[in-house]
Amino acid sequence: MEIDNKIIKKLIETLDDLKKSLKDKNILNSDSPVEEDIQTAKEVVKSPIVGTAYLAADPDTKPFVSVGKKIKKGDTVMIVEAMKTMNHIHSLVDGVVKEICVEDGQPIEYDQVLIILE
Questions:
Q1: Using CA atoms, how far apart are residues 13 and 69, in angstroms rounded to an integer?
Q2: Which of 35, 71, 90, 103 is the most buried (most CB within 10 A)?
Q3: In this predicted structure, what is the pLDDT of residue 27?
Q4: Measured between alpha carbons, how far is 25 from 63 in angstroms, rounded to an integer?
Q5: Which of 34-61 are b and which e, b meaning 16 or more Cβ less than 10 Å from the residue's Cβ?
Q6: Domain range 31-117, its CATH number among 3.30.2270.10, 2.40.50.100, 3.40.50.1220, 2.60.120.680
Q7: What mean pLDDT comes out for the span 91-118?
Q8: 44 - beta bridge partners?
Q9: How many other β-carbons are positioned within 10 Å of the β-carbon of residue 98?
Q10: For the whole model, what pTM was predicted?
Q11: Residues 93 and 116: beta-carbon distance below 8 Å
C-alpha cells in the first residue's frame, strides 16, 4: 500500500494550522456534570459489550436494581442483549445504586457507564 506524500504533507500543514489557531485556548470543558458525578462516585458499572440494555428480565417483572437499592458483588444489575444473546451484567463491587444511566431498551456502547454506585 502506497501513501501519497502530498496527502501526508497536507495533513501535517492542516494540523500545524489547527495548533496555531488553538494556541492559548482551553478546549476541554471541565464543567461537565456527568464527568464530575462519575469522578466523585465510589464505583461504576460499565458495559462490557455493545448491545441493548434491559433493566428487567421480562417486561412484566420488576427491574434488577433501582436507585437507593443495596447490591452485592456478583448481583445482576441488568441484561445486555447482543446478537440475540442475553448477557447478564454483574456488579463487581458492593454498593448502593446512586444513578441508573441508561433506559430500558436503550442501545449502548462498549465501556459506557450503566450504573453509578456509592
A1: 54
A2: 71
A3: 61
A4: 45
A5: eeeeeeebeebbebeeebebbbeeeeee
A6: 2.40.50.100
A7: 92
A8: 116
A9: 18
A10: 0.62
A11: no
